[in-house]
């Protein structure tokens, strides 16, 4: 059973019939590739309606994690990201981890994990624990290192572990996932979206941001050291600002973002 999210203003989620699936293939140099050999071959079927929604269904989440494990072993696009984030470990459960999955109600073909921090419910993001830091500090604090963002006043989120079955790696499905992620952030007045990516993924995400009219870019003020755990792959801190979606004539400065939904019900 899939439990749909219930945002305050509108039902969140992107739906589409799988028409003209391969019309807008992402260029090879920024795609995740589409020639990965998995144990089972899946071909998207036009008559099946795929959706992207938040869920706590343990069966769907288990499928998402299983897909992650299979791809990490054989997918060259996971180089530098083979060590799973805390949220993807099988023995780890945290109510602050949200799973936004691409599925048809029974089978998961992709998804992304998300963590949200608000002024009244501060949460350490996974990326804050993954950025190498001095031994005297427990985690890398975005609030301390990005003072111009005023993260003590705004809600912010992390997107992590984007995974899509090779047969579903098209522009349509990528946009479905990021559109759903963006709509969720807008509905709950989450101002900033953060992520870590290598150069290839950074280019992909920034293109997706632009396609959604979202202001996003690499944050140049943080230099993430290259390390063995990341297979010596250089990583970059990305961010996107949703302020322009909240700026209206009656509130040009989007001050409503100072009052995020604290007691939100994701499911």
Can you characterise this structure?
There is one protein chain. By secondary structure, the protein is α+β, with helices and mostly antiparallel strands. It has helices at 58-74, 126-130, 142-145, 171-187, 199-211, 243-246; strands spanning 14-17, 49-54, 97-103, 108-117, 155-164, 190-197, 215-218, 236-241. It has one domain (48-258): 3-Layer(aba) Sandwich (Aminopeptidase). Strands 1-2-3-4-5-6-8-7 form an eight-stranded mixed sheet, sandwiched between helices.
Return the CATH class.
Alpha Beta
Outline the biggest β-sheet: 8 strands, mixed
- Read across the widest sheet, the strand sequence of neighbours is 1-2-3-4-5-6-8-7
**Low-pLDDT residue spans:** 1-41
User: What is the fold-level CATH name, i.e. the topology?
Assistant: Aminopeptidase
Into how many domains do the coordinates divide? 1
Q: If helices are DSSP runs of H or I spanning 4 or more residues, what is the number of helices?
A: 6
Structural class: alpha+beta
Could you name the CATH homologous superfamily? Gcn5-related N-acetyltransferase (GNAT)
Give the overall pLDDT as a whole number: 75
Helix content: 10-25%
Radius of gyration: 18 Å
**What distance lies between the first and last C-alpha atoms, to the nearest angstrom?**
12 Å
Task: Give the overall form.
Answer: globular
Any guess at the CATH architecture?
3-Layer(aba) Sandwich
């Amino acid at each position: 059973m899939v439990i749909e999210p219930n945002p305050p203003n509108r039902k969140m989620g992107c739906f589409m019939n799988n028409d003209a699936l391969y019309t807008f293939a992402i260029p090879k140099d920024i795609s995740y590739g589409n020639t990965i050999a998995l144990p089972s071959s899946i071909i998207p079927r036009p008559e099946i309606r795929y959706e992207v929604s938040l869920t706590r269904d343990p069966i769907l989440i288990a499928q998402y994690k299983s897909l992650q494990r299979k791809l990490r072993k054989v997918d060259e696009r996971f180089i530098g990201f083979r060590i799973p984030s805390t949220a993807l470990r099988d023995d780890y459960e945290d109510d602050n981890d949200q799973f936004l999955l691409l599925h048809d109600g029974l089978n998961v073909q992709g998804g992304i994990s998300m963590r949200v921090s608000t002024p009244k419910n501060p949460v350490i993001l996974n990326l804050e624990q993954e950025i190498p830091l001095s031994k005297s500090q427990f985690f890398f604090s975005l609030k301390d290192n990005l003072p111009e963002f005023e993260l003590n006043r705004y809600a912010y989120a992390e997107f992590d572990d984007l995974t899509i079955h090779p047969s579903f790696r098209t522009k349509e499905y990528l946009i479905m996932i990021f559109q759903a992620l963006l709509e969720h952030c807008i509905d709950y007045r989450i101002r900033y979206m953060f992520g870590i990516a290598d150069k290839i993924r950074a280019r992909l995400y920034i293109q997706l941001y632009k396609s959604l009219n979202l202001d996003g870019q690499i944050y140049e003020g943080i230099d993430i050291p290259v390390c063995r755990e990341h297979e010596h792959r250089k990583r970059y801190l990305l961010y996107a600002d949703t302020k322009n979606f909240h700026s209206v004539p009656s509130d040009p400065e989007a001050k409503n973002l100072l009052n995020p939904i604290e007691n939100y019900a994701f499911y």
